[in-house]
Amino acid sequence: MDHTLMKLTDISFPVSIIEHLKTRPGPLFDAHLHEHYLQIFYFTYGKANMYYNQTACNIQSPDVLLINRHELHYGENASSELRYFVFRIDLRLLSSYHIAPCSQKYLEPLENGLVFLQNHIENQNISAMLKRMIEECKKRQDGYEFEILACVFELLGELFRNHKEKSYTPKYSEMLMKKTKRFADVFDYIEKNYTRDISLAEASTVAHMSEGYFCRMFRQSTGRTLTDYVNRLRIEKSVLLLNQGVCNVTEAAMSVGFDDINYFSRVFKKYMKQSPANYLQNDRKYFL
User: If you average pLDDT over every residue of the chain, what do you get?
Assistant: First the structure.
């Protein structure tokens, strides 16, 4: 079960804060990356296994995990209950404020992939800053946006001072970005074509890789085979349809690309741990 408990999202504001509750073990989200975001996970209860750049990390409360721009990542809940906050800092929007010399000296190198910050962070100061942002978001008193922005700049200062991991030349950064963009293109292609069969040849062509190399790299990067990734996405889409009550099980299966209702039921049960019929009898709050 996945609940969104607290939410601050405004496309005109450079920071979003979302609180999540997961009440069963399993995947948190599929592998993906962000073009313009610096993303921070703050775990307040439970344990999780997080994967980024082919690195596995065991996480438990009160750990902090930072995901740099263009870092491929995915996660799994490793406990019966997991609570965590997701902070997204829009580097492009933050840079548009033109706060000299911060934009040119710090934000632009971060946005352009010239600087990478440490991923797994143990720092009480940073945890305290994240808590302050959460409290400001919950209370939403006059001026809370200023307070959150102040925390963001204080946070970035602490990260640059004590958790700066790597610096790259523009040429090397461009090479890394091209490599990760291959998979971003594949994810986008799958999102647009999941309702039909996607062959290994198609996906490897989109990634500009040989089929064998693509298989190895895709599994290393996402923790899944291509078929597993596509099927999980299809089930996720079918769950949304069933939650909306706009169709029955057969119609949901056909809408997401399954021609065989029996096969759909087996795949559905694999990911949802129950049949579609049992799912419809429950409260329909389950999400992948």
Answer: 87
Buried b (16+ CB within 10 A) or exposed e, 59-92: beeebbbbbbbbbbbbbbbbbeebbbbbbbbbbe
Give per-residue pLDDT as tens, 238-273.
988 888 888 899 999 999 999 999 999 999 988 888
Report the amino acid identity of residue 63: D
Distance CA 55, CA 236 (A): 25
Paired tokens of 80: 């019966």
The answer to whether residue 111 sits within a structural domain is yes
Give the domain-ending residue among 148, 167, 186. Answer: 167
Show the domain range for 40.
2-167
pTM of the model: 0.72
We report the CATH number of the domain holding residue 158 as 2.60.120.10
Q: Is the pLDDT of residue 177 over 80?
A: no
Tokens encoding 124:
């009480």
In a domain, 132, yes or no: yes
Last residue of a domain, one of 116, 137, 167: 167
Distance CA 134, CA 144 (A): 11
Q: What is the pLDDT of residue 283?
A: 55
Q: Are 20 and 3 within 8 A, CB to CB?
A: yes
